[in-house]
Amino acid sequence: MTRMRLAAHPISYLVGVKPEWGTGTISVTIKRIEKVDKALQNLVSHPKTSARKLSSAVGMIISIVPVMGSLTRIMTHHCQKLIACSPSWDSLFDLDRYCILELEFWQSNLKTVNCRSFTPKPAATKTFFSDASQLAIASATHSGDGKLIAHRMFAELERAESPTFRELAAIKFTLEAFEPALQHSKVKWFTDSQAAAKIIQVGSMTFNLHQMAFAVFSICLKARIELDIQWIPRSLNEKANYLSNMID
């Protein structure tokens, strides 16, 4: 009888994750990175593809969630939508510019964001409360650096958007306004919109809302902001709610 002998591969080889015990971080192995990058290059250089090929690349990206976190879902959401809309696994279709944008994002940032700490994280250094009314955006914070307030009126076209869009716009506007002060910070963010909080975490199948989540995450990535967003009842968001109803 022939016995099967299993090689004792390191865990990092089996799951494509490499721990760095000295720094307390994990990263995706070079072999896995190269495999994902090759799949992305093939798709971007040949934008007529099939759901099977696109699904394979998206699956590779999502498989590195232990290191990349919710970024893998947010930055593949439109690709997933395209896969779901395909009539069959092997029928060919053209990648639209939004799907290509997601793929190019991973080409550009796969190595840049390839690091995540597995040590206990410090408490948030800044706390924001944001809200959006029919007319305006507002946010407020109290931190060691003092009080920060952001406020602006909505343009006419923005007023016609959904409440969720306006809540996401409040988050995006505040991050843009205070990006220099928030760099390399862990930010705790409170919103009274359950939908907005969820979309920032996982994206949305509604494209303009997904675009807004994409913009928020891009700002955070550029400024190395770690955003921890949480829903709270409107009764606990009184200051931002009051400010959002102010008219310039």
TrEMBL record:
GO terms for molecular function: nucleic acid binding. GO terms for biological process: DNA metabolic process. PANTHER family: REVERSE TRANSCRIPTASE DOMAIN-CONTAINING PROTEIN (PTHR33050), RIBONUCLEASE H (PTHR33050:SF7). This is Integrase recombinase xerD-like. It comes from Paramuricea clavata. The lineage of its organism: Eukaryota, Metazoa, Cnidaria, Anthozoa, Octocorallia.
